[in-house]
Structure formats: structure tokens, C-alpha cells
Amino acid sequence: GENVEQHPSTLSVQEGDSAVIKCTYSDSASNYFPWYKQELGKRPQLIIDIRSNVGEKKDQRIAVTLNKTAKHFSLHITETQPEDSAVYFCAATLGDSSYKLIFGSGTRLLVRP
Amino acid sequence: DVKVTQSSRYLVKRTGEKVFLECVQDMDHENMFWYRQDPGLGLRLIYFSYDVKMKEKGDIPEGYSVSREKKERFSLILESASTNQTSMYLCASSFDRDRYSNQPQHFGDGTRLSIL
User: Minimal CA–CA distance to A2: which of A78, A70, A92?
Assistant: First the structure.
């Protein structure tokens, strides 16, 4: 079946450094790619999303890039802060339907003060 | 702000019991979802509903059923709970004017269910 692979599973960076999380998807019809942040004991929260007609999107320290040809998309966090420490999930729609999202397995990001 | 409320944060049940997990959203969303979250596996879709009384199976529906009698409420039912259903269960909802509008999903706080 269709899947989304996410790497790395854990990432440790020094405060102020950048962090990059990468995902690849298998369904060429996928057209919506959200990223969620889940702090310990809390709900996943949408932090940024990108649609297939856009190659890059930025929101302050967070950016997402999409390469449709290679079927991969990445989350970039610059100037990391301790409060960025969390588990991050990427996701992709199954086909062009907005009903079903397939999630990656998650990346645990630790920002060391 | 979207509010998705799950009835319990923690629940302990016994093997063989029928278990109900409730989820309510207050944003008049058409779509509602149930996921389970296990370490290293991400979020896996159990069932979803795109309208009242409508439901579709997700990736791991075995051992579960759902009910959506009202637009704001989506229930997950474990017909006969088993220990391998011990997990974190997350409900989500989204607004779609039509099938292709790609609206984000909003999650509840989750129910940590333990089956003994």
C-alpha cells in the first residue's frame, strides 16, 4: 500500500542550529502535505502545510519544501530553540482526496540549550 | 479556535469488555477521524466519517467499529477489547466544502487506553 517514510527518527541539535526532517511518499497523486508538532502529552498541532502546486512555503523560522518529481518534502527549522523540542510528523494525502492522510512514523527533535 | 474534545484522557478496561471512546467537535466539521498512535508507527487511521451516518474503513479497522449519529459526535467502539488494543487513540476533524479542498485536520488531546 501507499506509505510515507520519515527520517531521521531522532534528531539532536544545539540551540541556534538548524534542523531538517525529510519525508518521502509513494503516491504520485498526493497533493497536500501537512506537518504536525506534538509536544509531550499534548495533541498534534498543525505547524505548516504545503500543496502540490507550490514548491516552498515559509512561516517565520519554519519552512517546508516539496519536490514532486522526487516525491519528497522536508521541514526546515532555523535558529532552533528549546521549545522546538517535540515529535514532528509529516503526512501526505492518499491520492487527491483530502479525507485520508498517511502519516510518517515521527521524528523526535531535541534542542540542547 | 477549533475544539475537539475526547471524553476521557485515561481509560482502563478489561479484556472482552465493550469500550466506547467519544469525540465531539464544535466547528461544524463534515469530516471526523479516529487514529491510534503507537511508538515508532506514527498515526494510523482506524475509521473516518465524511457525513452523518457515513463511515469508511481506514488502514486498521479490525476489531473496531464507529458511530456517527450527529454531525458533531464520532464514537469509536471496541467490540471486545483485547490487550493489543492498548494504545493512544486520537480523534480529529476537518472542514471540507468539497472532497478536494485539503483542509487541515484538528486533533483532540487523545485517550490513553489500557486493556488489562
Answer: A92
Low-confidence ranges of chain A (pLDDT < 50): none
Distance CA A86, CA A30 (A): 26
Cα B43 to chain centroid distance, Å, stands at: 11
Q: Which three cell numbers stand for residue A45?
A: 498541532
Amino acid making up residue A71: K
pLDDT of residue B17: 97
Contact (CB<8Å) B108/A43: yes
Give A103 to chain B, closest Cα distance, Å.
6
What was the pLDDT predicted at A99? 73
Cβ–Cβ below 8 Å for B48 and A100: yes
Core vs surface per residue A14-51: b (16+ CB within 10 A) or e: eeeeebbbbbbbebeebbbbbbbbbeeeebbeebbbbe
CA gap A68, A108 in Å, rounded: 25
* Residues in a beta bridge with A75: A21, A64
Reported as a single tens digit per residue, the pLDDT across B19-54 is 999 999 998 999 999 999 998 888 999 999 988 989
Q: How far is B69 from chain A (nearest CA, A)?
A: 19
The full DSSP string for A69-86 is TTTEEEEEE-S--GGG-E
Cα–Cα distance between B87 and B46 in angstroms, integer?
12
According to DSSP, residue A1 is labeled -
Partner residue opposite A49 with nearest CB, options B104, B106, B108 = B104
